[in-house]
Specification:
- The protein is mainly alpha-helical.
- The protein has three helices and two strands.
- It has a domain of about 35 residues.
- Helix content is about 75%, strand content about 0%.
- Helix 1 crosses helix 3.
- The longest helix has about 110 residues.
- The protein starts with a helix and ends with a helix.
- About 10% of the residues have low confidence.
């Protein structure tokens, strides 16, 4: 019995050694695979790192370009606001001239001056940034309006256009009479 037990133990130890050798060989193959692919893995990591750096550089240049174009857009917006203010001043000046001409025509024809003023903005003429004429980079100055001149008939005109309109109306009045 002792020989069978001894033989059984020898077979058991031998089978354990065979299993150990098998697992050592598998581990060795896995380590060899890891070593052979390690250089590929390192190359892949380096390529990934370069791509990340390139992405950061691209984002920085994109941010710089957007800031540059944003500044250009802000300049254009400021210029557009200035031009809009100037157009509002010109429109107000035109409305004032139209109102004065209408008043002059009404006073020469004996009618009451109309109460409605011309406005491109409706009843609410709205305030705008360049409300003061000196506040804008552009202002209309009517030298004839600053110093109204008297006509031969004794009428005071605020501009040359009013004087010419008055004379044309007088001629038409004489022709129709």
């Amino acid at each position: 019995m002792s020989t069978t037990l001894s033989l059984f133990m020898d077979v058991l130890v031998m089978s354990g050694l065979v299993a150990t050798i098998y697992f050592v060989l598998r581990l060795s193959k896995s380590l060899d695979n890891f070593r052979s692919h390690r250089s590929e893995f390192e190359a892949l990591m380096e390529e990934l790192s370069q791509n990340i750096e390139h992405a950061y550089e691209t984002l920085a240049s994109l941010k710089e370009a957007s800031n540059r174009s944003g500044g250009d857009i802000n300049k254009q917006i400021a210029e557009a606001k200035t031009l809009a203010d100037e157009l509002k001043i010109m429109n107000q000046s035109g409305n004032n001239v139209a109102n004065r001409l209408e008043s002059l025509v009404a006073s020469t024809s004996g009618q009451a001056a109309p109460s409605q003023e011309y406005s491109a903005y409706g009843d609410d003429e709205g305030e705008f940034e360049g409300d003061q004429i000196g506040g804008s980079s552009f202002a209309i100055q009517d030298r004839e309006f600053d110093e109204p001149a008297a006509d031969a008939s004794g009428k005071k005109f605020q501009s040359q256009a009013e004087k010419e309109l008055f004379e044309a109306l007088q001629r038409n009045k004489k022709k129709s009479a």
